[in-house]
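re: ur question from yesterday

yeah so i grabbed the chain u mentioned. its 325 aa long if i counted rite. heres the sequnce exactly as i have it in my notes:
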Amino acid sequence: MARKRGQEINGWLVLDKPLGPTSTSMVNKVRWAFDARKAGHGGTLDPLASGVLPIAFGRATSTIPYIMDATKRYRFTLCFGESRTTDDREGDVLARSSHRPTDEMIRSILPALCGGVVMQVPPVFSALRVGGQRAYDLARRGRPPELPPRPARIDSITLIDRPDQDHAVFEVQSGKGVYMRSLARDIALACGTVGHISVLRRTKCGPFDLSHAYSIEQIALDKSAETRDKADALPAPLLDVATALADIPALAVTTAGGRALIYGQTVSVSHHVVSASGRLEDHPLWRVLIGEHVIGLCRLEEGRLKAVRMLENHLFFGEKDVDYS
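ran it thru and got these structure tokens back, copy pasting raw so excuse formatting
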């Protein structure tokens, strides 16, 4: 018997990912629980990391790139005294140091590691490709690659707790592609010692935070196939597709302007913009609304608005085919 394709489900679920499983395995579990046709996630968490893992269903998968680029917040514990091959507690010990920095020393070195774009060497055990192969595959075969520094946007690092001399707890706000394991390693080195991450938790990812999150136990993974076939009996409520765009400034347009953008036409700013949360020239991307409904994204180009990605099509207006020329 051919396998069912699953339900056409659209929206976001925020999972509080537990320690241990991979992000992909969590997406597969949740996709099965929802009997969803299509699903993906908005940013990988390592197996030894927990916290906010946004999972997109159906049309929400088209907004994943905007979550990947969004600002994120983490809390991690740095363990001083041992560097590890993986830069977390899973790896083998590479070096040891008896030096333990004071709180004052830690705070003094943090400004040099944040405040904008810095250069960061990724962990050897990462998914980056080197000569067509994953860096972690090379490292596991005993041939760890030398990875060049990469630009990384780190907005802020705050020392928030010092449980004992061997540990320090930090909160970090950062952009896309920042490795917390590398940051922990670099903080220790800047303090004249070595260290690794022992605990890592993501608390925010774009507009999604822990207040939106469900644990895997809260999602009824043992629902019967009969129950899961019902679209109105989902294991947990979904957030709207457009929730992923909430951090992008809003631009309200007229119904006629929105229709034109959906049909791929550019529109006049003076005739169709109702309101904007700022100057159009100040932002590369705008979240377009008709009334309170988000229809997609646009940008300003030569004085006119041009669609970048539309979440709605002509059916939003109940039209089969319209020539809006």
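noticed a couple things. The radius of gyration is 23 Å. also The chain is about 20% helix and 35% strand.
anyway ttyl
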